[in-house]
Each structure stands twice: as C-alpha cells, then as structure tokens.
Amino acid sequence: TSMVYEILNNPFYYGQMKYKGKIYQHKYDPLISRWLFNKCKEVQASWKKKPFKYGAKKWIFKGLITCTECKYLLSSYARKGINYVRCHHCKSTHEREGEMLKQVSEVFKSFTVPNHVLEQLTQEIKKNHNREQEFYDSNVNALNSKIKPIKKRMKTLYQDRLDGRITAAQYDEMIIEMKDQEEDLLEQLKDHSKADKLFLISSSYVLELANRAYELFESSQTHQKRQLISYAFADLQAKAGKLVWKLKNPFAGMVTCAESGIWLLELDSNQ
Predict the structure, then answer these.
(1) At what angle do helices 34-46 and 168-219 cross, to 10 degrees?
(2) What is residue 101's predicted lDDT score, i.e. its pLDDT?
(3) β-bridge pairing 16-19 and 22-25
(4) Which residues are registered as beta bridge partners of 83?
(5) Is the C-alpha dihedral spanning 221, 225, 226, 228 positive or negative?
(6) Which helix (H) or strand (E) holds 212?
(7) Average pLDDT per block of 10 residues along the chain, 271 residues long
(8) Alpha-carbon distances, residue 36 vs 85, 140, 156, 190 (angstroms)
(9) To which H or E segment does residue 233 belong?
(10) Which residues contact 238 (CB under 8 A, 6 or more apart)?
(11) Is it true that the peptide bond before 250 is cis, omega within 30 degrees of 0?
(12) Residues 6+ apart with CB under 8 A from 261
C-alpha cells in the first residue's frame, strides 16, 4: 500500500519531478495527464469520509429529500425486504419507498408536451446549441492564442539556457512561472470542453423527458431513477409522507402549461 501511495502522489508520471524540494519539468513523455493526477488526489482526499456500509446500498431517495418540519435529510432503511424512508430527527415522516415513488411518477406523468410545441422546442434548442458552439469556439480560440506564445517563449528560454545566456536558477524560476500559466490555460480549455458536453447532454435530456419522462422513470434502474429525480427536481421535501416539490426549468413550465392547457412558447433569443 505504501508503494501504491508513492505512485499516486509522484508527479513524474504527468511530466514533473521533485529534486531537492523543487519541482522541475522533465524531458520524458508523460504517462498520464495532469487532470488525472489531480483527480486521484481528490479521491484520496475524500477516502473513508462516507459511511461505506450504508453508502453501498442502492437507496433511491437517500440524500435527496429533506423534512419540512426539521429540515434534516431523510434516511432510508430496509425491513423484511421492504424499503422505507423516514426522518430520524423529528419522526414526522415514516413511509414506504414505493409510496413515495408513486408520487414522483405522477409528477413525471404530467410532463406532457404537444407535438407542435415539441417541434418548436427542438428547433429552439438547436438554435441555442449553435450560439453555445459559437461561444465555445470563440473562447477556445482565445485560449489557444494565449497558449501558443507561452510555448514559443519556453522554447526560446530553453535555448537561452543551453547557450548560457541565462543561469540555471533564472531558467528554473521563469520556466516554472510559464508552465503554471500554461497549465492554468489548459485547465480552462478542459472546463470549456466539459461545459460544451454538458450543454449537449442537458439538451438531449430535455427533449427525452419532454414526452417520455414517466416511461423512462418507470423502466429505469435505481441509480437511473436517482439521476432523473436530481435532474428534474430543484427541491424535494416530505411532510408526513407526502412529497412537496419544486421543479427545475423548463419542467416547471411544462407542468404549468399542461395544467392550464395554454402553450405560448416565448423563448427569448437572448436566453
């Protein structure tokens, strides 16, 4: 275990090495990315901070519902093969998980959008994606334009060191500063890429949930039900076994329009 710990904390694998308390770039090809190394550090930092005995169980509502009376999170447990949800703190709610699932299913059943509105929604999402793509491309180009001169300066700096125009200490100080700047810009690039991917996933979910929410929820597995609930509900509380909820947009608007029977699709082009 100590050897594994040393490996997971050794920056050499992503391109840097420790020498006399300092970090230097080495000339060998990195085996992993800096992002993956940092992700491993995050996992180490969170290790054993969750109760694994209970965290391994597949509870649909665990960590998703708060009590309206005491504002504590409701817990889940099983007895004789039946899952229950309850408030350990004030005891105001103690209900079968299945009964609460029925209430959530009814909410998803109300996500009904007429076909002509769904077509307009599809077209609007395409327009939004085009605008998002332009924004993404603009930011990526701007970041790349900043990274390129940094790489060029580092290359020149290396040549100056070889030719003796600067000392080793001067080179180390400047190269570390430039490398930090480059890594920061590369992390920003990754964030933009992640945001672009999330936008596409979110758009896909909106369309999928627009008319098939109930069907998808009923046929999904436990972890998928949790994802659907987290995606659609902004807030979920329980009062004596009855759910009190607030939906995220655009689902809140879908339910309101479905209840009123009035569908006025006023999607601002600037939103």
Answers:
(1) 70
(2) 94
(3) antiparallel
(4) 78
(5) positive
(6) helix 168-219
(7) 84 85 82 81 69 58 90 90 90 92 91 76 67 74 88 89 87 85 79 60 65 85 87 89 87 78 53 40
(8) 37, 21, 29, 12
(9) strand 233-239
(10) 65, 66, 67, 68, 74, 85, 87, 93, 95, 100, 244
(11) yes
(12) none
**What angle (nearest 5°) sits at the alpha carbon of residue 182, between those of residues 181 and 183?**
95
Under 8 Å between Cβ of 13 and 30: yes
Name the residue type at position 176.
I
* Residue of 2, 6, 10, 41 whose CA lies nearest to 26: 10
Q: Mention every residue, 6+ apart, whose C-beta is less than 8 A from residue 154.
A: 175, 178, 179, 182
Instruction: Please state, in angstroms and rounded to a whole number, the distance separating the CA atoms of residues 94 and 70.
Output: 14
Residue located via tokens 């125009």: 165
Q: How far apart are CA 237 and CA 65, in angstroms?
A: 5
CB neighbours of 12 closer than 8 A, spacing ≥ 6?
18, 26
Judging by beta carbons within 10 Å of its beta carbon (0-12, 13-18, 19+), is residue 270 exposed, middle or buried? exposed
Which residues have a Cβ under 8 Å from the Cβ of 60 and sit 6 or more positions away?
76, 83, 97, 101, 222, 225, 226, 229
From residue 269, give the alpha-carbon distance in Å to each of 123, 129, 137, 139, 253.
12, 12, 19, 21, 17
Closest CA to 236 of 245, 225, 228, 227: 245
